[in-house]
Structures are given as C-alpha cells and as structure tokens.
Amino acid sequence: MSRMDKETFDKLVDTIEDAGFEARAYSGRSMYGRWCLGVNCEEPMSCLMTIVSSFCENADDVDAVRDLVDALSDPSSDAMGRGGVLYWSSIPWLGDDEDEDEVACEEAVQAGC
C-alpha cells in the first residue's frame, strides 16, 4: 500500500474504535522518533482479528476489505509495563500532534524517567 491519506487513516481509526480499542500514536524500537498508528491491547493477534471482523461487519465493498487487510497485514507488537501495543510502522500517525506528546509523557512515566 502506498502512503495512506488522511481520509483513509481516519476511517481506519474509526474502525479500531468501533472494535472497542483506542488508536494512538506510537514510536517503537528503531523508529528514531517517527510516530505510527498503534493500539493498546493484551493479545495482539486477537486484537487484530477483532478490528478486521468489526470492519467486515459494516463493509459493503469487497475492495475496501482488501484495502484494510493490506494496510494491516504487517503489524508489530511490543510488551509494555501494563499490557502491550500492536502497531504498524508502515502507517504514519496522522492524528493530532498533541497525542504524540501525551503518549511520550505517559511512556516516560511508565519507564521511571
């Protein structure tokens, strides 16, 4: 998938939220300050399947389902102090910049900095 536009990003965030999760900015290992789409969750694969299933329930276009599966096809996960995060380094965070600052602050507090 080529670089995601804001409209597609917003639809993906809506899908994540419809599935009962919260989309967030995440900067993982070897990302050197770049922010991407992330989701806090306990079981990454279960989370991914729930997101896709939620989207499929409301989709009326097979191509839209294919695009979603393509966009979410290469996730990474990371264990954090209180749970984990599922993230896609190939999907840049296109949400509010203040989300990045808030997440960075929360992660620093969790790490004891």
Model description:
By secondary structure, the protein is of the alpha+beta class. It has one domain. The protein contains four helices and four strands. It has helices at 6-18, 44-58, 62-71, 97-110, and strands at residues 23-26, 36-41, 76-80, 83-92. The chain has a four-stranded antiparallel sheet. The protein is globular.
Key structural traits:
disordered C terminus, 113 residues, four-stranded antiparallel sheet, single chain, alpha+beta, 4 helices
Report the order of strands and helices: HEEHHEEH
Radius of gyration: 14 Å
Integer count of domains: 1
Figure out the total of helices.
Answer: 4
Q: Structural class of the helix and strand makeup?
A: alpha+beta
Proportion of residues in helical segments? 40-55%
Main sheet: which strands, in order across? 1-2-4-3
> Gap between N and C termini, in Å?
37 Å
Major sheet summary line: 4 strands, antiparallel
Q: Report mean pLDDT, rounded to a whole number.
A: 82
Portion in strands: 15-25%
